[in-house]
Amino acid sequence: MPGVHIIIGPGGYGNYSHLERYFAAVDWLEDHEIEFDWLQNMTGQDYPLQPIATIDRFLTESDADGYLEYGPVFWDVTPADADWGMGPVWRAMTKFDRSLRFGYQHRWIGRPTKAKQKYLRPLMAVNLVQPWLRVSLAYSTIATRRRSTIFNGDDFICYGGSFFCTLSAACVYYARDFARAHPDIVAYFRTMPAPNEVFLQTVLVNSKKFRIVPDGKRYIDWSGTRNNHPKTLGVADVPAMLASGAHWARKFDSVADPEVLNVLDRYIGRC
User: Which residues of the chain have pLDDT under 50?
Assistant: First the structure.
């Protein structure tokens, strides 16, 4: 396909490799002197809810620097005058989840699989009886308690949200350059699950250099899901998707419900 470039990488799930792949794409664009105004990340399970020309026109006319879901992770100790993004009612994660992610240093034991989750599940009992060791079924990690975190006071507030976003070139290069200039901070993110759900938010919002709209322009339904996987969308979800005003939706399975993509194609074709 013309205009498509594939970068081969080792991959990974729930670790810093998501950000490595993101920044590798940024490096490739820079190395090949390809100028861009906006960068949108997505997967093979994403699909547009609006014509591409409509999305392009929206971004061309926008006065924002980025569309990125974000809110404070440690909402119970975040100062009232901080940037609350999605608002004080929104919760990025529960207290137990954030303790597991940020209070412990994680080591991966391979990719999560159904077989591995089956034999790890009994070990999760250790999470309830002592504070020094944690087992994560969703990310397939064993973790030991940290002495401290990198988030201190008002200077470096921890923000979280979805990794799927639309960012201006200025935001993208700022985040990439920040990662290059702060290997100590990157080292911390390498030992926590799903750093891609925190890194861009924390770096960009704390910089106070950009106007970030706390809306990634993605429709994702987390209701009734387990182990960090959103609902697979179908025809019944179309009204909610289109009413959301999002540019993209995820995730879809063309085998489980192929008709939903036909419905969206017909809607987009009429716009």
Answer: none
